[in-house]
Each structure stands twice: as C-alpha cells, then as structure tokens.
Amino acid sequence: MAIFVVCSVLFSVGSCRKKTEVPPPVIEILSPLENDLVVLPATIHVKLHIASDRTLTMVRISIENAAQVPMTTPVFLYPAAGEFDFEVDVYIGKLPEGTSGPYYLRVKAENGGAARNDFVQLRFSGPELVSKGFYLVTRPGVSTTRVLFFDTAFGSSVFIDLPNAFNSAAVSQLDDQLYLSTKSPDRLRAFRFPTGETAWEKEAQMPFPEYFDLKLTDQLIYIGSGNGRIWGFRADNGKEQFVSPLVYDSVPGQIGIFEDFVVADYRSLVGPERGWLIFYKETAALVRKHSSQLSVQAFYPALSKNEALVLGNIGNLGVVQFYDIENNDILLSLNFATGIISASCPMETGSYLIAVGKDVWQFNETQKGLKLLRQTTDEVVDLKYDQASRQIYLATANRLNIFNATADTLIAEFESAATIQAVCLRLGYPDK
Asked: What is the pLDDT of residue 96?
C-alpha cells in the first residue's frame, strides 16, 4: 500500500509538470538559404514561418559569428496573436574588423513559456568603400542653412536650402541619403541624393520639441530630444526602432553607440549637474547613471569590447578618457596642456584626429600617445577623415582645407563666404 501511495504521488506530480510544460516554438527559415553568398553591403530579406501552441511574445533576428557576437543590430518583432509568418529586411554594411567566420543568421522565438533558436549559415564578400564627394553645410544667414555638394573633381552645386538653423548631420552609405537635424521647428529629415527630395522626416515631440546630437550607426539614427528621450529611427524609412525611457530633469547631448550599450551625455535642466546615462542597446532599458563633469565632445568605441574613448572638456581643459561601460570604471584620463577640444573624428583603427584650439593632433589608442599634425590660423570647426582616399578634411569658419593622411600636403582649398557648420563625406560602394 505504501509503495502504491508513493507511486500515486509521483505520478500525480509528474502529471502536473506535464500539464505546465510549454513546448518551444518551431522555426522554419524560408529565406535566406543555407550557405547563400551575400555581397556586401546588402539588405538580406528574411522570411520565416514559426509554429507555436501559444502566442509568440518576441522574435529576434540577427547575424552573428560562431561565438554569437552580433555582426548587425538585432531586429526585434513583437507579434500579434496568431501571427506566425514574418518577412523583414536586415541590413549589413560590412563585417566588423577583427571578426572571423563562420557567420550565421540567427532567429530566436519566445512564446512566454519556452524559447528556441534556429540558424542558417551565410557566406559574405564585399567591395571596398570609395569616395563619392562631400557635403559642406553652411550658414548663409541668420537661422538659415545651405548645403553644397562637391563631386570627386571638386565641382560644386547647391544641394538644398533650408529656412532653419543647423543642428547636426550624417550620411548613409547604403541609402545614399543626407540626414539633417535643424532648429525652429526642430526636425530630423532624410534627403535623397542627387535630387535633395525628402525621403522622410520626424518633428520633435511636445511638450519640449527640441532635437540635439544625432549618431548614425548600423543603419539606425539615434537622436536626443528635449523630453529627455533618445530615439532610434531606421535610416531607410524613419520607423522607430529604439526609444529610451523618459528623463524629466535632464536632456541628452552627445551619443555613443557600442556593442551592447547606448551611452549619452546628459546635462541637468535644474542645476549644474551632468552625467552619462547608459542604456541597453537591445531593449533601451536604463542600466545606470555615471556621474561626470565632462562636457562630452564625442564618444567612440575603443578597441576593447564595450569600452568607450570619451573626448570632452572640463572648463577650458580638453580631456581624453577611457571608460569601461560594463564595470562603470574610468580606466584612464589624459589632459591637454591647454585649450578645449572643438572637433574630432576616427582615422584608421585605433587612431583619431583631435582639434584643440588651432592645433590638430593624432591620438593613438594603443600607445596612448599624441602627435601634433597641423597648426591652423583659425579655430577648427569640423574634422573628417576619408578612409577610402586617405584624406583629412579640416574646416574653419570660412575655409575648408583637404590634406593627405599625414597633413603635410595640401590637396585642395576652398573659401566660403557663408559660415561653415559641418563637413559630411559621401562614401559608398562602386556603382554596378
């Protein structure tokens, strides 16, 4: 009888467990196919069928290497009840330096009780970037913006005229679009090349309709707003992909995008305090706040994963810092002897250009060393480095100089009657 009772109890417990088990979804990747060759840059059309006894709560699509390191920004889908067929485009411009294959399209599906992953191996090849000219953003009058385009022979033409003050800009290699954030009213717009037609636009939202810094990476445009949020829009169509939580008493300035995190420099609206807010890149959830008095000029991904090279100013002093995002630790802080950082840009891997007053320095991340490249007669407004042609673009208020990579040979020089605001390089891939 005792044995019968024990068996009955075990059977009952086992039956209860069976009733609560939820089978994981079954994933069928219809496109792309196993071992498909993808010529970069590319937009990969992903077609899926997922079978599930329960409503799907989340589908995650990404391209990863064998160590499951993402090669692209993951795409998240949150299906409606009964939705099991999906088609989505995943953009990949180039494979990150230092990574190795094999590479996989990974699909993860969750249904509230269980999850399953499925993989398709892909092969990648791609052409090298080429120079296709550049945009010169100028201010011809009060609260107006004129963008000139210069082709590879330095022939110029007016690309667009806007009755708004300039805020920030970026260029997409894949979509061949110029993105401009302008003031009064604050608006983010995508302009197609060569027509200058508006592809899409987003107005800053009430009750504080302002836009600040923007950053384009992985075909997402991140931009800070007067409501304390950071928005991430798809570069091709402007659809929302990332929305950070509301921050009621501070607004974001410079933004940095890293492998797992988004970092922004926030300044208080009610006092002198400032600091960095760190968000998860996938979910936009707030991770932490890092207190800092640094007025950030730029965040750049360092050579080590989830470490930031931070350039900025404290008072009248330019500062270079390395910040371990995961461990919330300043690893190193270097100061310039005099002057503030007004502009910067990445060069080759681990190398950066930094303008401090009228001096242009080259910073080597590995050696933590500075080398003076060039001195100018006026304050530097903007710096860009063309990796395809290996040329430095150095802009002051009314002059643009183009130098070779060592800044000792002048290639071209342009005078501008209108005040120069920014230089944006138009890089792309050879036309087919």
From this structure: 74
Q: Which two tokens stand for residue 115?
A: 């999850």
Spatial separation of the C-alpha atoms in residues 226 and 228, rounded to whole Å: 5
Mean pLDDT of 121-126: 88
- How far apart (Å, rounded) are the C-alpha atoms in residues 310 and 197? 35
Q: What is the DSSP string of 305-329?
A: TTEEEEEEEETTEEEEEEEETTTTE
Residue pair 381/397 in contact (Cβ under 8 Å)? The answer is yes
> Nearest Cα to 393, choosing from 363, 355, 336, 351?
355
pLDDT at 7: 42
Name the nearest CA neighbour of 179 among 407, 193, 75, 94. Answer: 193
Quote the pLDDT of residue 39: 86
* Residue 97 confidence class, pLDDT cut points 50, 70, 90: low
What percent of the chain has a predicted confidence (pLDDT) above 70? 94
> Could you tell me the two tokens for 298?
């730029």
Span 119-126, mean pLDDT?
Answer: 90
148's tokens: 């000139």
Burial per residue of 386-423, b for 16 or more beta-carbon CB atoms within 10 angstroms, e otherwise = bbebebbbbbbeebbbbbebebeeeeeebebebebbbb
Q: Contact, 159 vs 135, CB < 8 A?
A: yes
What's the distance, CA 13 to chain centroid? Answer: 51
Q: Which 8-state DSSP code applies to residue 304?
A: S
Q: Strands of 85-92's sheet, edge to edge?
A: 26-31, 42-51, 85-92
Q: What is the dihedral of CA 351, 357, 359, 360, to 10 degrees?
A: 20
Spatial contact of 84 and 52, defined as CB atoms under 8 Å apart: yes
Residues 29-61, buried b or exposed e (16+ Cβ, 10 A)? beebeeeeebeebbebebebebebeeebeebbb
Q: Is 151 helix (H, G, I), strand (E, B) or coil?
A: coil
| Cβ atoms of 340 and 354 closer than 8 Å | no
Amino acid at residue number 261? F
Residues 315-325 as b or e (16 or more Cβ within 10 Å = b) = eeebbbbbbeb
Express each pLDDT in 46-65 by its tens digit. 999 999 999 999 999 999 99
Partners of 131 in the β-ladder: 427
